[in-house]
Amino acid sequence: MKTKELVYAALFAALIAVLGMIPPLPLGFIPVPITAQTLGVMLAGCFLGKRMGALSLVVFIILVAIGLPVLTGGRGGLAVLVGPSAGYIFSWPVTAWLIGWYSEIIWPKVQTWKLLVINLIFGVLLVNLIGASIMAWITNTAVWAGLVGALAFLPGDIIKAVIAAVITMQLKAISPIEEKVQAR
């Protein structure tokens, strides 16, 4: 792995930490708050590609595990990684990898709507399916109840998916994916 790739991964881990500084929106009926950090997950996949996108999220989770307060609300530590948010957090590297994989496939003919569809499938649906199911298991509630509660995330997640697709298209020329395509 090149130094430039490691720097990109570290920068996106930092970006996701910065997005964690935006105050969470607690819902009351579900123990997981609405956060801006999934925007960073989608951006990591769309902009960096599968390998660097997933690596940036692994680095981020390591930062959480060692106790740095990088999650929304200043949370960090191992307790968070076994709490109700665990499924959402652990779905992030998988999500970034899948978004990056499909982004790399479509990159030569990339369009905003294609990135949006990829973000909606993996950055919204997959994260919520995994996160809500594991949250239900951890909180000892029915999976359907967790999935119904997760519907509250959909409006904001759809907006984040649009933002990630638009930003990626605006920065397409400097994306590491573009460099790979040009090198072929």
Automatic annotation (TrEMBL):
Extract the Gene3D superfamilies matched here. Answer: 1.10.1760.20
A GO MF label: biotin transmembrane transporter activity
> May I have one GO cellular component term?
plasma membrane
Please indicate which superkingdom the organism of origin belongs to: Bacteria
Identify the keywords attached in UniProt to this record, alphabetized.
Cell membrane, Membrane, Transmembrane, Transmembrane helix, Transport
First-listed, main subcellular location of the protein, grouped into a coarse class: membrane
Membrane topology note: Multi-pass membrane protein
Q: What is this protein called?
A: Biotin transporter
Origin organism is: Paenibacillus monticola
**Transmembrane parts of this sequence:** 30-48, 55-72, 78-103, 115-138, 144-167
Q: Which family does it belong to?
A: Belongs to the BioY family.
Intracellular or extracellular location(s) = Cell membrane
Q: Which Pfam families match?
A: BioY
